[in-house]
Amino acid sequence: MNGRVQQAVQSILTVTALLAMAALLLAMLLAVTGYAVKPALIALVRGAFGSWYAITSATIVRLVPLALAGLAVAVAFRAGILNIGAEGQLLIGAAAATAVSGTLIGEPSWIALPIILVTGASAGGCWAAVAGVLRLRFGVLEVISTIMLNFLALYITGWLVRGPLQEPTRINPQSATLPIDMQLPVLLDGTRLHAGVVITVLVAVAVWCWLAHSASGFRLRAVGANAHAAAATGQIRVPRTLFAAFALSGVLAGLGGAVEYTGITFALYENFSPGYGYTAIAVALLARLHPLGVLGTALLFAALEAGANAMQRDAGVPSVVVSVVEATLILLVVAADRWQSRSTVPARLTNEAGA
Amino acid sequence: MSIDEVSVLTVSASFLEAAVRTATPLTLAALGESVSERAGVINIGLEGSIIAGALGGTIAAGAFGVTGGFFAGAVAGMAIATIFACFTVWMRADQIITGTAITLLALGLTGTLYRTLYGSGGVALATPTASVYAIPGLSQLPLIGRALFAQPVVTYALYAITPVLAWWMQCTQAGLALRAVGEHPEAAIAAGIAPRRVQALAVLFAGAMAGLAGATLVLAQAGTFVEGMSAGRGFIAIAIVVLGRWKPLGVAAAALLFGAANSLQGVFQSMGFVGVPYQLFLAIPYLLTLLVLAGASTRSAAPAALGQREL
Amino acid sequence: MKAPLLSLERITHHFGRVRALEDVSMTVRAGTVHALLGENGAGKSTLMRIAFGLLSPDQGVLRLNGVATTLTSPADALAAGVGMVHQHFTLVPAMTVTENVALGAHGLYRRADAARRVRDVAARAGLALDPHARVSDLPVGAQQRCEIVKALSRDVRVLILDEPTAVLAPAEAAELLQWVRRHADAGNAVVLITHKLRDALAIANDITVLRNGRVVSAGADEAGLVHAMVGEASRDDGVHSNAREARQSPAPSEMQGRNVISIRDVVVRDPQQVVRVRHATITVRAGEIVGLCAVEGAGQHELLRVLAGRLRASNGTVQIPPIVGFVPEDRHRDALLLDAPLYENIALRQAGTRRGRMRWRTFRQQTTQLMSAFDVRATGADATARTLSGGNQQKLVLGRELDRTRDALVVENPSRGLDFRATTAVHQALRDARHAGLAIVFYSSDLDEVLSLADRVFAMYNGTLIPATMTRDAIGRAMLGGGAADVHA
């Protein structure tokens, strides 16, 4: 138990150090590029947390798709699957949600909403399952196949919003707006904070409980840690576990798309996702693939992006500068990981020397 | 010759011309990536090198002209690849994770720098561009003449780079070493090859080629820098490498196919087919890549140690 | 007197805090075979990795032809005339023999010229090899010849062979040793890393014995060398007394013990439809240890996995208990989650069938108990598996597998990579399990280990299972399909 407390303290310290370094880096970057550092940082913080509206309608609302896609990536990576297809799975989830919502006009929202969300999630799962089949049946690296599937999803979305799902006037390349009674309820009047936040937190807690404390969650982690050893137990069916992980990952990302559609955008369009699925990789990694940690890092990234918009508006600093900060954070984590594992190398070498 | 036949011929010729033009940056980036993947490194950060090359090319072309622009593009692409190599080759960090971060980093850096240098409006720049150089005689050939022989010089450079690279991989010791590192690094070490050096060089080469691709986008095509103008070409290049089965000639052919699919849109527009869902045509090469990937022979063509971290 | 081709003087090397070599010296003269003897983990490979430029020593001098030299890479070593053939081959399977041999040179690669060179070198050395064959298509013996030709083609004077006979059948091994002798007689030097006394005594001019990273002085006879290799321990329970003890322990009566494992006419085909196991029939009773001997690639791994229920037979009947313990030979790859805590490694045994919640508190307690029962030394149940020594990892795996079954256990190379003490502990655990009524099947690449531990022995040749009597000769013949004459590449 003592060890766990120590571990927790250590990870908190690490995260704090990383944040400090990120802030420092941002300040340096601004200074180098000739912007006034202080007003920019103030604008950033204010844009993310400066007002109740900023917190709910800018920051937390951005957290939702990032966290759900981040959970998708975390689950896949935990199983040893390098799913970089969350972007495509999210898009397909949103597209399926849009498609099914068109057939549910007139249904009461307590029927329509669950159907929309479940459809989106299942569609995301199916899209990821394609990569699963390709890997398990044909041995195709999922890194490559999910890239292809992302492009396919993007083009399918582009076609849908100009074709079958285009709004009735046929002018704009986007779907019809979702009727208000089929939208996720707003939690606080006057803000954009919607019920998707509650869904996200519940899902994150559920995924954490499942991974840490259930037998099937342990199987998934065991397969991810060492698929050969899992297979050699003679009882864990590795392909089935992997396939389930692919599907679950896709379900989470697809749910992210459906929640974003029913909670924020209310319509499908070509640039529906500004790269949530790619940022999600950073979110998951920075959280060390821990489901609850994903909530934290998604909040960080959401705040950075919300703040970046304000920074651009108020201080004239290009918002893309936060991408640099995000990227640097990931690289710092990667470097820290490698540095840590370097200290365990001698043990491994000793074993080899004994072999 | 009836008017219809003439117009079909014109449309086809301009379609082929567009296909080759679109394929040029893709081929550059994909040839680089194929070398890097042959050494066992899958560089998802290629996108970052492309966008860096585009901005580097833009800045330098303004000061030193087109040639300087291409040179600077290659250097900028290589600079981004150097960061990638530091993490993946030197620290042996995960290639996918690092590549994702590098892409994000480069997109952010180029966007910030661009706005800082040229103002938030992104002033339309007077960037010199590489003019089309039509080869006398050859460019007069029917149908394919203009497509193949009325292009910027960088396209002609590919006519040399591609076969030379193919020859280099098969017929030089360095090419043999490259393949050995990607197949079985332990064997390479035992043969006195330093896999890390080979991988680092391969990654830098890929970065330079991707940088050239970025410079091409600006200097030979768009004529100006646009934020995020790499538009996923780094990922497309990875698809092309797979479809080209990691062989330079195959890669060039696959790039041409991707270029052709991209150019279909123009054909449909010029022929008045408004209702055709061109997005589905754009999707065809990716679908094809997936199908080809599922074929057994492609899997065996993939370098055995691709993406592996330990040496 | 001419300077020795290779001399290592007062070499010391550490891995982290662990000392692998201390003050080790050895001299390799032209025209000789120099055997480097020692148990697993004695430091033989480490020393030779230093000689081949793969490691640089913390202290000490390496001399080539009398000149102090620093080797920073295998490339340096090869250029200086030192070549090494590793125990695990370092060939690129997807490439041809010629490409593999040519690897590492500079300039152009001309296929025809390179192939001619392979043919020349092979012919001069008296080794048969097809230059255009893909390495992945070659049998083990030919791959080894390819490795040797690869080294020779770089004009090396000192050839280091790391356990070269481990992967070969006895007759092939004898042939290789004869070749080594001839090669040395032609004025070259060969360093033979081995833990097999017999090989060393048969052909070596000089013998250096390492124990725990130090050179120990040894007499020239077998008894003296054994003592030198295993140290004090050999007096009370060395290899040979082990064997004796095994014979003395009450042999299980033929009628005692029910049939626990019983397979009949089992055929196993691999995914490429190549037959790996041909009509194997075997019965294992409670309370006996059945040993299996085979050359690498004879189908033993497939057969063991069928017996353990880890692989489905293509044909035939298989009767095994619902749960069979299985200890694979590659612990790191097949048995452990190296970065997970020990209690999760223990939980792995039931992870396949469990449903619902994992009760980690219970698993922690069970792990602590198991660690004391099997003498697994670690900081606690929360330690990660990676931090354990090879011996403790093996005891943990063995303990886990024994704990989950009351019926049968299948073990592959139980002492691979373990030092003497850990080997003894593992053997004792297996004997205890037999005593407790388990049916045990194990395979070892070390004939002596099979002889010392097994009650009955089978040999496997090219997928066929052959009962053998408990003598070296009989087993050796059986491993080659009945006759030693019947050897081909």
Walk me through this protein's architecture.
With 355 residues, chain A is an all-alpha fold. Helices cover 76% and strands 0% of the residues of chain A. Chain B is 75% helix and 1% strand. Chain B has 12 helices and 2 strands. Chain B has a two-stranded antiparallel sheet with strand order 1-2. Chain B starts with a helix and ends in a 10-residue tail after the last helix. With 489 residues, chain C is α/β, with parallel strands linked by helices. Chain C is 35% helix and 24% strand. In chain C, strand 11 and strand 12 (275-285) form a beta hairpin. The longest helix of chain C has 16 residues, at 170-185. The radius of gyration of chain C is 24 Å and the shape is globular. Chains in contact: A-B, A-C, B-C. Chains A and B meet through helix 5, helix 6, helix 11 and helix 13 of A and helix 3, helix 9 and helix 11 of B.
Comma- or semicolon-separated keywords:
heterotrimer, A: 355 residues, mainly alpha, 13 helices, B: 311 residues, two-stranded antiparallel ribbon, 2 strands, globular
Structure summary:
With 355 residues, chain A is mainly α.
Ends distance of chain B:
64 Å
Largest sheet features of chain C: 6 strands, mixed
Q: Given the C-alpha coordinates, what overall shape of chain B results?
A: globular
Strand content of chain B: under 5%
Tell me which oligomeric state these chains represent. Answer: heterotrimer
Percent in helix of chain B:
over 70%
Low-confidence stretches of chain B: none
What structural class is derived from the secondary structure elements of chain B? mainly alpha
User: How many helical elements of chain B?
Assistant: 12
Radius of gyration of chain C: 24 Å
Number of helices of chain C: 18
Question: Which percent bin holds the helix content of chain C?
Answer: 25-40%
N→C terminal distance of chain C: 41 Å
Biggest sheet of chain C, strands in spatial order? 6-7-8-3-9-10
